[in-house]
Design a protein that fits this description.
Strand order of the largest sheet: 10-6-1-2-3-16
Largest sheet: 6 strands, mixed
Structural class: alpha/beta
Mean pLDDT: 85
Low-confidence stretches: 128-133
Protein name: Pilus assembly protein PilM
Distance between the termini: 23 Å
Number of helices: 8
Radius of gyration: 20 Å
Shape: globular
Length: 311
C-alpha cells in the first residue's frame, strides 16, 4: 500500500500558534491526525516579524517533533504590510499576466520594488451578454506582495528548528478555499486578532482584504469593537461596497477575539444583520475527519490551518 503523504500547516501567531497534521484519504477526505493550539512565547515578534530566539525555536521544535523531512510543511501568514489587490484582465498567457501584475503592483508598493516578492492567483470568468448573444472570457487576478524580509525571517526561524518550510501562503488565500465557486454574494469575513481586525470579502472567486483595523495592544476592548463596527458600516457604504452590493453580504466571524463573550451578539445588534461564526462551514461537512469531537472555539482558531490542507 502506498504511504500517505502527510501535510502539516502552521499558523504562527503573535499570541497563539495553531498547527494541524493529517493526510488525504483515497475518498478525498482530509484525515486530521493531530492538532495543537498553544500560546506563543512572549517577546519573540518584533513589529509582526518573528525573531530567531531560542524560546521560539525550542517551542516550534517541540510542536513539530513528529514532522519528517518527507512531510509537506506549509506556513500561513497574515502580515500587516502585505499588499493585496484584485484586477480583471482579458484572457492572456501566464507570462503576460505576470508582467501585467508586476506593473500594477509597482504602483502600490510603498518602497523599492525589488525588496518585495510578487505573486498572484488567477481564475477564469465568463461574462454573458444575453441581448448581444455573446460571452466574453476574462481573468480575475489577485495580486499579492510580501516584503522579502518578512519571508526571510519566517524561513530563518523554521530552518533553525530543522524543519524547513515547503510553502508559504497568505492566510486569506487558504480561507477562500472553503467558499464554493458559485457563491452569489460578496460574503464578508471579520477576522478578529489580538491587535487588529481584517474585513475580507469573497468576491469573484477570491477572498480579498477590504480594510484592516489596527489597534494599540492596550486599547479597551469596547473601543476595539466600536472600531470594527465602524469599519463594517464604512465598507458597506463605500463606492466600491455600494457597487458590489457588500450590504447584502453574509457575515462571518473568525479569530481569537471573536470568541470573547458577547462579541457576536454585539456586532449583530449594531449592524442589524445576521452574523455567524465562520466555523459554520464545517457543520455537516465531509471535508475533514477529526480524531475527536471539536469545540466551536477550536474550529474557529484552527480554520486557517484546516483551510490550508485543502487543495
Amino acid at each position: 500500500m502506498k504511504k500517505k503523504k502527510r501535510q502539516w500547516v502552521v499558523d504562527l501567531g503573535e499570541e497563539v500558534t495553531k498547527i494541524t497534521k493529517g493526510f488525504c484519504t483515497d475518498a478525498g477526505i482530509i484525515q486530521i491526525e493531530n492538532y495543537w493550539i498553544e500560546k506563543t512565547p512572549n517577546d519573540v515578534f518584533n513589529e509582526g516579524i518573528p525573531e530567531k530566539k531560542i524560546d521560539l525555536v525550542v517551542f516550534l521544535r517541540t510542536l513539530l517533533k513528529e514532522h519528517h523531512i518527507s512531510d509537506d510543511l506549509l506556513l500561513v501568514i497574515n502580515h500587516k504590510n502585505m499588499v493585496v489587490s484584485s484586477f480583471a484582465f482579458p484572457m492572456m498567457q501566464i507570462e503576460e499576466v505576470k508582467e501585467a501584475i508586476n506593473w500594477k503592483m509597482q504602483v502600490m508598493i510603498p518602497e523599492k520594488f525589488d525588496n518585495w516578492r510578487i505573486d498572484f492567483l488567477a481564475k477564469e470568468r465568463t461574462e454573458i451578454f444575453e441581448y448581444l448573444g455573446i460571452d466574453v472570457k476574462k481573468l480575475d487576478v489577485l495580486g499579492v506582495a510580501v516584503h522579502k524580509e518578512v519571508l526571510k525571517a519566517y524561513c530563518k526561524v523554521f530552518n533553525s528548528t530543522k524543519h524547513g518550510l515547503k510553502r508559504i501562503e497568505p492566510q486569506f488565500s487558504v480561507l477562500g478555499k472553503l467558499f464554493a465557486e458559485n457563491q452569489k454574494n460578496a460574503d464578508l469575513i471579520i477576522d478578529m486578532g489580538q491587535t487588529s481586525a481584517r474585513l475580507l470579502f469573497y468576491d469573484h472567486g477570491f477572498l480579498q482584504e477590504e480594510r484592516r483595523i489596527e489597534m494599540n495592544g492596550s486599547a479597551d476592548f469596547e473601543i476595539y469593537l466600536i472600531s470594527v463596527v465602524k469599519g463594517i458600516k464604512e465598507s458597506f457604504q463605500s463606492p466600491l461596497g455600494l457597487a458590489r452590493g457588500y450590504e447584502n453580504s453574509n457575515i462571518y466571524l473568525l479569530g481569537g477575539k471573536s470568541l470573547e463573550y458577547g462579541v457576536l451578539n454585539y456586532i449583530k445588534e449594531k449592524i442589524n444583520k445576521e452574523v455567524k461564526y465562520f466555523s459554520i462551514f464545517l457543520e455537516d461537512q465531509s471535508l475533514f475527519h477529526f480524531p475527536k469531537e471539536m469545540t466551536e472555539a477550536e474550529l474557529c482558531l484552527l480554520l486557517p490551518c484546516l483551510s490550508g490542507m485543502l487543495k
